[in-house]
Amino acid sequence: MFDMMKMMGKVKEMQSRMKEAQDKLADIEVEAESGAGMVKARVNGQKKLISVTIDESLMKDEDREMLQDLIVAAVNKATDEAEIQAKEEIRKSTEGIMPNIPGLDLSGMM
């Protein structure tokens, strides 16, 4: 028979673990680069840009468009990697609480 109280307890436990995992996402930092390391971007697990580092050799007016493209590329790479690490953190935090239900993706809760 279905035990509603047990299920409610599991839901509360999962909510607590999800909150803890979300708090930890701010501590995840990922750095990615583009242009052979001439542009570097750091993003946290909450997909927030933390910093951008630009090589001095790119600080010329004639390189402005290339620099803009490199910044976008580095930020996108860092954001993608941060998302992967954030999903893994959420997965680890909720492991064993809820049954493995195919198609149930809790990553959207972050």
UniProtKB/TrEMBL annotation:
Residues 4-31 form a coiled coil. PANTHER family: NUCLEOID-ASSOCIATED PROTEIN YBAB (PTHR33449:SF1). Belongs to the YbaB/EbfC family. It comes from Fulvivirga sedimenti. Pfam families: YbaB_DNA_bd (PF02575). Its main location: cytoplasm. Binds to DNA and alters its conformation. May be involved in regulation of gene expression, nucleoid organization and DNA protection. Signal peptide: none annotated. The keyword DNA-binding applies. Homodimer. GO terms for molecular function: DNA binding. The keyword Coiled coil applies. Keywords: Coiled coil, Cytoplasm, DNA-binding. HAMAP family: DNA_YbaB_EbfC (MF_00274). This is Nucleoid-associated protein LDX50_10910.
